[in-house]
Structures are given as C-alpha cells and as structure tokens.
Amino acid sequence: MVSKLVRDNLERRASRFNLVLDDVSITHVTFSPAFSEAVEAKQIAQQTAQRAAYLVDQALQEKQSIIVKAQGEARSAELIGEAVKQNKGSVGRSLWRGEGGGGAVDVGILDVCPQFPAAAQDGGRARDRDARVQLGKQAHARL
Fold first, then answer.
1. What is the pTM of this model?
2. CA 117, 120, 124 angle in degrees (round to 5)?
3. What gap in Å lies between CA 40 and CA 106, rounded to an integer?
4. Residue 42, Cβ neighbours under 10 Å: how many?
5. Number of CB atoms found within 10 A of residue 124's CB
6. From CA 115, how far away is CA 93, in angstroms rounded?
7. d(CA 84, CA 92)
8. C-alpha–C-alpha distance, residues 96 and 90, integer Å
9. Rounded to a whole number, what is the distance in angstroms from the first to the last CA of the chain?
10. Residue pLDDT, tens place only, 55-72
11. Predicted confidence band of residue 136 (pLDDT cuts 50, 70, 90)
C-alpha cells in the first residue's frame, strides 16, 4: 500500500522530466520517535489486555472448581444423612471401625451413635488423663 503510493507519486513527478520508472524499491525506512512510542504503547496495551483476560479466565475456572467441590461435599453430606437415617446409627459404627471412609468420624455421627465408648466421644481425653495418672503412680512407687 505504502510502496504503491510512493511509486505513483514518484512516477508522476518523474514524468514531468520525461523519465520512466521501471521499479521503485524502498530500502531504508525510519519512523518518528512519537510514532515508535505509539507502536510500543499499543503493544503494551495489548499485552495488558491479554493478561487481564487470562486472569479473568483463571478466576472463572477457580470459581467453577469451588462450585463443583461444594456440590460434591453437599451430595456427600446428603448420602451420609440418608445412610444414617436408613441404618439408624450403624453407618457411624462402620465409620468408627474404618470400614466406610478411611477411619474418619464425623462428630454428628458420634451423637447419633451412643454405643461409642466414652473415650471416643471426649476425643480420648479421659484415656490420656488415666494414662498420666497411671504414669504418676508408677513414678511415685519408684521413689
């Protein structure tokens, strides 16, 4: 586009002197500092816009991940609740023995299952207290 405009302009000017141009070749082009700065500013603006779009996409993916995780946890809670209702506490016993979910016990399940030992319901504090008392008696007996 630019070379065609230059060629047309040169041909028009050369024709006044009865010169015919066969070819026009542009070999060295320089731009003003203002133009160069404008091009650089445009590139920076494009990169900033791309970075912002990336951050938005990342936030949307994180949001979707949180939603999926929350839906899974809600469904898990529903299933545990239904199982506890249907089995009237036996789910809690199987979880306590590690048969249902890797040995983790939900405090709500402990409340539903009164047959758990007292040590399990108080988090093992009574057992720990008894062990300290026993150790104290042994140490006192050695003196």
1. 0.41
2. 120
3. 60
4. 10
5. 13
6. 8
7. 7
8. 10
9. 105
10. 999 999 999 999 999 999
11. low
